[in-house]
Automatic annotation (TrEMBL):
The UniProt record lists the keyword Electron transport: no
Family per similarity comment: Belongs to the GGGP/HepGP synthase family. Group II subfamily.
Keyword Metal-binding applies: yes
GO molecular function, one term: phosphoglycerol geranylgeranyltransferase activity
Name the UniProt record assigns to this protein: Geranylgeranylglyceryl phosphate synthase
Gene3D superfamilies named in the record: FMN-linked oxidoreductases
InterPro entries tied to this protein: GGGP/HepGP_synthase_I, GGGP/HepGP_synthase_sf, GGGP_HepGP_synthase
Reaction catalyzed: sn-glycerol 1-phosphate + (2E,6E,10E)-geranylgeranyl diphosphate = sn-3-O-(geranylgeranyl)glycerol 1-phosphate + diphosphate
PANTHER family reported for this sequence: HEPTAPRENYLGLYCERYL PHOSPHATE SYNTHASE (PTHR40029:SF2), PTHR40029
Biological source species: Hymenobacter ginkgonis
Length: 264
């Protein structure tokens, strides 16, 4: 007798977890690892650090991504830190890998490039369905950070103006009305200046979804500011790649923001 295929749950567990953070005022930290900068010995050292200074998620992604690098990176994370969920942060339909736990299914709503709004998603959809990955539909907004970033260049889109919180708020509002469940404000990898507190506050007030903020968060102060302005989850990539010991400061800043302590 043919079996009825089981459809994935409407609200995946990871999305539930993030929505829960928002309701409980819990703040979270994700570390972005770029598969193309994969070096097993450095990674092992970094994962050991995360045992002393626990993080909430690993994000795995980059603008190019050679498949075997991504697979090796996920395998290492699953072997060494099985308790930390691994979320794909893809820039292309080719980057779907069922070995991760979930995927930030980004729709680049700050841009006007149909391929990154819906095109890549159509190509990825059957493989995503088959993969069993938890799908987290995410409104992805690139924000001008003073210079072109890899993501703005690769996507061929103009980022949101840095000093226009109201445009970011309306963009997020439209994304939420279209059914997106997370919002991600990103200054872009290696941003010169992070997304402003005013913009984070405006988006926070405009939507009810959990809010992710990343790009150029390279001091505890910047992390604290982003969280205090309303981010639920901050993402740190480049600075931790270069300076793994920054993890202690990053985790401390997240805990301070969570407890509403004033920074000295
Ligand atoms: C539907 C699927 C599966 C994919 C499409 C996903 C979309 C729409 C992506 C939005 C646009 C985009 C190109 C995002 C890039 C996100 C990313 C992985 C940034 C990290 O950039 P790096 O390549 O690490 O930058 P650097 O290494 O140069 O600092
Ligand atoms: O590498 P950084 O600048 O920390 O940025 C992380 C992430 O938000 C990039 O998309
Ligand atoms: Mg990178």
């Amino acid at each position: 007798m043919p079996t009825t295929p089981t459809l994935p749950p409407l609200l995946p567990r990871l999305l539930d977890t993030l929505a829960g953070y928002r309701q409980q005022g819990r703040k979270a930290l994700a570390v972005l690892l770029d598969p193309d900068d994969f070096a097993a010995d450095r990674l092992l050292h970094f994962v050991a650090l995360t045992r002393q200074h626990p993080i909430d998620f690993f994000l795995v992604g980059g603008s190019l991504v050679l498949t075997e690098h991504q697979a090796a990176l996920i395998a290492l994370l699953k072997a060494e830190a099985p308790q930390v969920p691994v979320l794909l942060f893809p820039s292309h339909a080719l980057h779907v890998d069922p070995a991760a736990d979930g995927i930030l299914l980004l729709s680049l709503i700050s841009g006007r490039n149909p391929d990154f709004l819906i095109g890549q998603h159509i190509v990825a959809a059957p493989r995503l369905r088959q993969s069993g990955l938890q799908v987290l539909p995410t409104g992805y907004m690139l924000v001008d950070s003073g210079r072109p970033t890899t993501a703005s260049y690769i996507s061929g889109t103009a980022p949101l103006p840095h000093d226009k919180p109201s445009i970011a708020a309306a963009t997020a509002m439209a994304g939420e009305q279209l059914g997106l469940r997370l919002m991600y404000l990103d200054g872009g990898s290696g941003a010169q200046q992070p997304v402003s507190a005013a913009m984070i506050r405006a988006v926070r007030q405009a939507v009810d979804t959990p809010l992710i903020v990343g790009g150029g968060l390279n001091t505890g102060e910047k992390i604290y500011t982003a969280l205090a302005a309303g981010a639920d989850l901050v993402v740190v990539g480049n600075h931790l790649e270069r300076t793994p010991n920054f993890l202690a400061d990053a985790v401390a800043a997240v805990r301070e923001a969570e407890h509403g302590l004033a920074r000295i």
